[in-house]
Amino acid sequence: MTYEEGKLLREAWKENGNQPCNHDFIDREYMYGGAHSDYICTTCGECHFNKEEFHKDK
Ligand SMILES: [Zn+2]
Fold first, then answer.
1. Is the pTM for the entire model greater than 0.85?
2. Of the N and C termini of the chain, which has fewer Cβ atoms inside 10 Å?
3. pLDDT score of 7 more than 70
């Protein structure tokens, strides 16, 4: 998934009420050139540098 796709996901998620997300499906986030590789939730578009960040207590 690219950064742009993630951005669209985040916007769509907010418009749908910004529900809590379990972040069940985590993908790598790629940018042009491939140097950038954060993790991104394919459900809500949230992105973090580490996979562990998604499941920290809020
Ligand atoms: Zn999520």
1. no
2. C
3. yes
Q: Do 14 and 7 meet the contact criterion of CB atoms below 8 Å apart? A: no
Distance 9 CA to ligand 1 centre (A): 10
If we measure between CA atoms, which residue out of 25, 56, 52, 57 comes closest to residue 41?
25
In the chain, how many domains are there? 1
Å from CA of 34 to ligand 1 middle: 23
Cα–Cα dist 30/32, whole Å: 7
* 21 three-class SS: coil
- Residue identified by tokens 């790629």 is 30
Q: How far apart are CA 43 and CA 38, in angstroms?
A: 15
